[in-house]
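Table 4 source record.
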Amino acid sequence: DHSKLQQDWKKGPTAIVQPYDYLNIIAIAVGLVLNHLSSILLRFLATYSKPNVNLEPSKNLKPGDLVKVRCHSFSGYPEAVVLWQDGHGNNITDNITTSQMANEQGLFDVQSILQVVLEPNSTYSCLIKNPLLQEVTHASISITGQHLLFPAVALWVTVGLSICLLILLIVLAYVCQKKIRQSCKEEKAKAALQPLKNMDVKEDMAEEID
């Protein structure tokens, strides 16, 4: 049918077009429209994947180092709104670089990079929002002790201070215990002398009476 239709078109406007040819034309047109609409709907309904968040570099880090927190999300439409938040839910707006590129399907892949000064026990969240669907996907990364490498000097200083503090506590405990023992001995000595003083007073009173 399609080959006959093409032959009729080649013959020019004088070619006789049968009714079923019109049906074929309509079917082809409807198919093209439906394919186009499905492609558009696919794009409008494309939600972004859950972001992948990682730290660069991820090893041999020290507090105060400048690091990158990288966030990836894939296959969404239209372009996303990217937000960064700290561990308290506050928005971060500085030192952010975001890029969005369309892939072969016409959907967008998102990459966002946040540069921060490394701090222990900190959390960063990447939020990817589809503005048409009002959907938000997010992921977080927490900076813990396993990411950090404290300097050897600082470690030895900490150990040395801890040892000094322990020795000081032991010395204070010994001095306090010695003071307590000495005080107890003095109290006992006073208690032992008290009866003798009472006897002396009684003798003096007896002599005065005589």
